[in-house]
Fold this sequence. Notes:
Chain A is α+β, with helices and mostly antiparallel strands and 306 residues long.
Amino acid sequence: MNVSRRDALKVTAFGAATLGGARRAQARERKEPPADATGMLYDSTLCIGCKACVVACRKANDLAYEPHSRLYDDPIDLTAHTCNVIKLSETGDGQTAFMKAQCMHCVDPACAAACMMGSFQKRQNGIVTWRPEKCIGCRYCQVACPFDVPKFEWHSATPAMVKCQMCLAKAGSTEPGQLNEVGEPACTEVCPRRAVIYGAYTDLVEEARRRIAAEPDRYEDHVYGIEEGGGTQVLYLTAKGVPFTALGLPDLGPESVPSMPVTLQHTIYKGFAAPVILYGVLAGLVWRHRRAQDAETAEMEKEMAP
Amino acid sequence: MSARAVERHGRPSPVGGEVMTPFMKLMLGIVAVAVAIVLYRFAFGLGSVTNLSDGHPWGLWITFDVVTGTALGCGGYAMALLIYVFNKGKYHPLIRAALMTSALGYTLGAFGVLIDLGRPWWTWKLPIFFWTWNLDSIQLEVALCILLYTGVLWLEMGPVFLERWAGDEARPRLRAFAERWTPRLRRAMPWLIALGLLLPTMHQSSLGGMMLLAGPKLHPLWLTPWLPFFFLVSCIAMGYGITVLETMWSRTIYQRYRETSVLHALTSAVIVVLVVWVGMRIGVMAWEGKLAEAFAFDLYSILFWAEILLFLVPAVMLTVRPARSDADRGWMFLAAGMMLTGGTLHRFAAYWFAFNPGRHWNYYFPSILEITVTAGFIAAEIAAFMYLIKRFPILTGRPSAALPS
Lengths: 306, 405
């Protein structure tokens, strides 16, 4: 065969028509926190690293100690046994700062966009919760989460996805069933310095801004989580001169992680029209070309017959 | 199949010969070891066998067995595109073998997913509980599409089995079944073929789309809305590549000669696909202003140019010296091998090498056990292919003596 220019055009058109949405895919409208959203505000300048919250979280969620050390409160990061951890970050010049890591309860969570049957979802108060009933353990949520939050039980034959659910459900429990009543999470409840507080999202934003305004020399003039990654329901304040990245928080733009891929997907598959039309065109081509090819065969066979 | 093709290449027929060759036994041995490892993994968890971590939750099994394995299984898709969309009936002699490799590649890809899933016992809910489907999930589309397409591939292979059973005097019930279903399948075939063209277009592109959700963890040279396009076009190149290799394999090992002209003509189609891919890959990066990353001369930029060279060089090779005669077989083999490597590298980059969870995560490299399981998958595919072509009418071509001049 000679590939004509027409064929080359067909190849390009085939690909381009299939994925024509790619160029036009602009970010979808920014999602807002639900009206009843609650969250946490962590103030790095108040935390003294006592880890009372780490222990309280473990107790509230029935999580065992870290298997590598057999100690109760020495996790170095979030693991399948730890969904809340206090980390000490070196911020240069021999200075250090504390950092509390747990699920950020994103406004537009990547884990929920990834999850095929909605095991990860924003539920009451916008709290992102994992439910075991339909999770098949594909771990796409882990690939997607920009904060490295969901943890997988690698050494279990019946693994769970473990992460902070703001005590709406026990982390790591594979028991299906109802969610707990919304109440104050264990970590904020025990914090002796009120370094982490729980409350309505809008109140927390207001409180964070009030603190910065009241003590502009104490804080960086930025609340992490209002913009970052499309917004998170857990907000952070950091000491003046200590960037959020030094605390280990990723440097994310205002667009949520799912925004581009999900928009692309919904543009290409809008109303499932493109696949249906493409199927119709393909079926037509197959039918026509098969008939032509069969007719040719029949004719040749007739000629070849003695 | 076009009459001319039948005349020159013969109808598909079983190769025959002994199935349990020493090579077959070796393949089955590797499969047995892999099965043992998989059983151990189901008893003690994924962490007991793999080097995966919360930072690198996907490794060799997803990258190779599933993502690359199904792309290597795109021979059926690529050939069907050529035959039915571009109306090149003369390639029909190649379609059965191509479909066979596709059916095996996809079936094993599906198994690859199952052994990698942490909680596979709920998988049955996926195709049934449609009211819980998360339509934002690109992986949902991939999963359902691959499931459906694996079924379509085996139905497209249906005539192969029905032909064999229709002639089976010893088993009258099987024969009656074949006689009843042959005409029905024939009537359904155009619809199945069209579905067999639609589904890979959807999921092979979406396999690229899936990694876009990795967001900031994926290097900018791969994080582009055009990644689905690159995956789609490269899977077509890989489909042609694997068909060329398969044709040469059956020729060398089973002495099934076909006219080299079939392969020769195929090359011009391959060149178009390769050039479109290379042009778009560079063009899109330039358009998105990522040339700085492309010329950073770090590991990622080297990967990027390696992908491009592995597609560009075969395009140049086949343009400069199109495979016309038997003497060009080595040349053709080299070109096919390079485009397969290029497509594989593109997938490994997007799913593994260019995926960087950052900070404190150790670099992922698969364990010996993971590699052995993947070897088991490859061995299973080879073993199944050898069995099927020996017993079922799949390969066309004639022994050399009967080759029409």
